[in-house]
Amino acid sequence: MKLIENLKNVWQIEELRDRILMTFSLLLVYRFGAQITLPGIDSTQLVGLASNFKDGIGGILNAFTGGAFAKASVFALGIMPYISASIVVQLMGIAIPYLQKLQKEGESGRRKINQITRWLTIGICLIQAPSYMLSLGSLGVPESAFMMQDQQTLFLVISTIILVTGCVFAMWLGEKITDKGIGNGISLLIMVGIIATLPQAFIQEIGSRVDGVGGWFLIIVEVVIWLLVIAACIMLVMGVRKIPVQYARRSATGGYEKNVFGSRQYIPLKLNASGVMPIIFAQAIMFVPSAIGQMDASWAKSIGTAYGDIFGFWYNLTFALLIIVFTYFYTAITVPTNKMADDLKRNGGFIPGIRPGTETSEYLDRIMSQITLPGSLFLAAVAIFPAIISLMGVTQSWALFYGGTSLLIMVGVAIDTMQQINSYLLNRHYDGLIKTGKNRKAVA
């Protein structure tokens, strides 16, 4: 009954209802586009392509695109070129003064950075699209599947244009969801693609257990472990370190009364302030060794062999290290301790025992470094857990949902979206989704 009442409260807020409907509509458009095969390719002859992207790195890439990669869809590139462009722009922001200046200009600077990211996305697509088309033959697509064999150059150009347009359109959908819908649009597009592959992976696991070793007992054990991992991910995402803050009580004239203090408050510093972005960034980088492995050189083949198995030692060690590095990096650029200290000082607030200003900024920076270390280690441990659970004989497609990119993105995006809905309810004098759902009395 509480759930039904909560949903009624959500539906009663017109703005929130419109945003949710907008989000679902745009996600539906994205999922519909992922099923449309590129013109000039016979969709009935793509069985070999689908088998190549069933497990391993190909399975992760296919999951990120919601199965579009294995279907030679118009959305085959998905949203990953945009993610790659975002990584490059943020890394360049450390060394290029112009980008550093834009980062300090507020909203106008953010718009210019977004525009640079969009153009860089198109540039990356112009490289990835023809590479994808030229590799289809080696990935299991027979020559008879291509209907324009006598006009290969024209077919390559047309397909490249369609793939680039599909990626740009997916990027536009993500931005529209962020602006007009609920949640982070780019993350939601990735999450929807991942969820689309979950039922099939679970059915395959049931089939392997029922017909093989373990039966239904091991299936129940696996589900229990999966729920425990989800609980651990929720704790990682929701964990905070509360920093006590004291505010001087304002007098009637607008000044501060001496020796009289107001209520005590807290600054919540998140254990995982960077959210799901470090693992998305790290996963994007981990596609590079696989691409290098396609080269003919012996050293490239060695790299491809070492990093081709996503459940292998070297892959997971590098993956974990990248996650730790990106967690520190993304936390440093998204948690402005200097601005937090300045805002506290401007509003008459201070941390007990810490001088306002520079000393407060250094204190907050030190605390963030201390809590980011266990947070990054925990994040890395969850990310490589699929490799550990696979030792129990779990199928690779189902093991990917025991942590790693898939589970962390799903949990992180779901919590972020739920928090946004919760804020709408609280602003309209309703209890949040985690409350009883009863109407609150409006404050006069």
TrEMBL record:
PANTHER family attached to this UniProt entry: SECY/SEC61-ALPHA FAMILY MEMBER
Domain of life: Bacteria
Topology term for the membrane: Multi-pass membrane protein
Subcellular location: Cell membrane; Membrane
Protein name: Protein translocase subunit SecY
Organism name: Nonlabens xylanidelens
GO process terms (BP): intracellular protein transmembrane transport; protein targeting; protein transport by the Sec complex
Transmembrane segments: 20-41, 79-99, 119-141, 153-173, 185-203, 215-240, 271-292, 312-330, 371-393, 399-418
Job description of the protein: The central subunit of the protein translocation channel SecYEG. Consists of two halves formed by TMs 1-5 and 6-10. These two domains form a lateral gate at the front which open onto the bilayer between TMs 2 and 7, and are clamped together by SecE at the back. The channel is closed by both a pore ring composed of hydrophobic SecY resides and a short helix (helix 2A) on the extracellular side of the membrane which forms a plug. The plug probably moves laterally to allow the channel to open. The ring and the pore may move independently.
Binding partners and assembly: Component of the Sec protein translocase complex. Heterotrimer consisting of SecY, SecE and SecG subunits. The heterotrimers can form oligomers, although 1 heterotrimer is thought to be able to translocate proteins. Interacts with the ribosome. Interacts with SecDF, and other proteins may be involved. Interacts with SecA.
Family listed: Belongs to the SecY/SEC61-alpha family.
GO CC annotations, alphabetized: plasma membrane
Signal peptide: none
Listed InterPro entries: SecY, SecY/SEC61-alpha, SecY_CS, SecY_dom_sf
Keyword annotations of the record: Cell membrane, Membrane, Protein transport, Translocation, Transmembrane, Transmembrane helix, Transport
Gene: secY
Primary location recorded for the protein, binned into one broad class: membrane
